């Protein structure tokens, strides 16, 4: 098949693309606006998810930032899926054991909030965070995704108690109530913390644009820090355009049993 023929092929209905914006908080209002505008222009509307932090680092509570809360509701009413993304997004736990300590130190910059929490504390933060976010958006959250995709035993127990529809980590999306996995595969994301991490993330994104579409569902995640480097924004644009050209843009809700593929309808039509 020629390159032109490949370019003219419609997106595959059997291959999904799900895009999300992480760390949505008044702290990052301007970067979030830029990311939402960029991604919406590529995907043809608000066909992505937002991961909302109720009180980022204890300094940006949603219930005290009415302008940003109104903006969240506008996005939600337009069809953006809203996930609860921790409570503070800051890890203050004393970790035990080499595995947890290594994850906390090397997999995130002190933001693996739910890695070391007890079940009771994790459940408290999940319930309080959900209440704050749902008050802001005027409807239910789509699920829970831990900061840095890191969960400890306490967080996994709390997920079941809180009855979230979906959860996600680096390598899968699952239903906490039954532990049923609804999507597998790594997330394509970018890093701005250092030159080495940036170079590595650019290489991974480039590979994602060229590798065969063997995964039924491919997830792409962006962060506010990505806007600080134009090389990352260029890569994000190229990667999402490329993948959306050969995959069907979907929502997390499309992964649930019985869900029909979404075309990005607003929430009012979904009710």
Count of helical segments?
A: 9
Sheet-strand content, in percent, reads 15-25%
**Average pLDDT, all residues:** 88
Radius of gyration: 18 Å
Q: Could you describe the largest sheet, including whether it forms a barrel?
A: 6 strands, parallel
Fraction of residues in helix: 40-55%
> SSE string, helix = H, strand = E?
HEHEHEHHEHEEEEHEHEH
Which structural class matches the secondary elements? alpha/beta
Unreliable spans = 1-8, 97-108, 262-271
Query: What is the quaternary state of this protein?
Result: single chain
Strand runs, count: 10
Shape: globular
What is the CA–CA distance across the termini?
Answer: 43 Å
Characterization of the model:
With 271 residues, the protein is an alpha/beta fold. It is built from 9 helices and 10 strands. It has helices at residues 3-8, 29-43, 66-78, 98-106, 119-137, 153-162, 195-210, 230-246, 267-270, and strands at residues 12-24, 49-52, 81-84, 144-145, 167-168, 172-175, 180-184, 187-188, 217-222, 247-249. The strands form 2 sheets. Strands 1, 2, 3, 8, 9 and 10 form a 6-stranded parallel beta sheet that branches. A 4-stranded mixed beta sheet has the order 4-5-6-7, with no helix packed on it. Strand 6 (172-175) and strand 7 (180-184) form a beta hairpin.
């Amino acid at each position: 098949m020629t390159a032109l023929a490949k370019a003219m092929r419609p997106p595959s209905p059997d291959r999904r693309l799900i895009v999300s914006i992480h760390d949505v908080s008044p702290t990052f209002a301007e970067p979030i606006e830029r990311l939402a505008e960029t991604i919406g222009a590529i995907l043809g509307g608000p066909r992505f998810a937002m991961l909302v932090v109720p009180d980022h680092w204890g300094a940006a509570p949603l219930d005290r930032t009415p302008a940003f809360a109104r903006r969240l509701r506008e996005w939600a009413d337009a069809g953006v899926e809203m996930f609860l993304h921790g409570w503070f997004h800051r890890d203050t736990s004393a970790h035990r054991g080499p595995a947890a300590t290594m994850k906390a130190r090397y997999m995130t910059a002190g933001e693996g909030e739910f890695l070391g929490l007890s079940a009771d504390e994790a459940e408290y933060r999940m319930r309080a965070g959900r209440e704050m976010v749902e008050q802001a958006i005027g409807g239910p959250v789509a699920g829970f995704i831990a900061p840095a995709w890191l969960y400890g035993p306490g967080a996994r127990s709390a997920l079941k108690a809180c009855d979230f529809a979906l959860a996600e980590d680096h390598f899968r999306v699952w239903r906490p109530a039954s532990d049923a996995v609804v999507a597998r595969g790594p997330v394509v994301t970018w890093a701005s913390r250092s030159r080495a991490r940036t170079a590595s993330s650019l290489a991974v994104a480039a590979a994602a644009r060229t590798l065969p579409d063997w995964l039924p569902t491919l997830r792409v995640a962006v962060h506010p820090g990505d806007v600080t480097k134009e090389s990352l924004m260029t890569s994000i644009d190229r990667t999402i355009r490329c993948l959306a050209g050969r995959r069907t843009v979907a929502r997390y809700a499309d992964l649930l049993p019985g869900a029909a593929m979404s075309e990005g309808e607003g929430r009012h039509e979904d009710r």
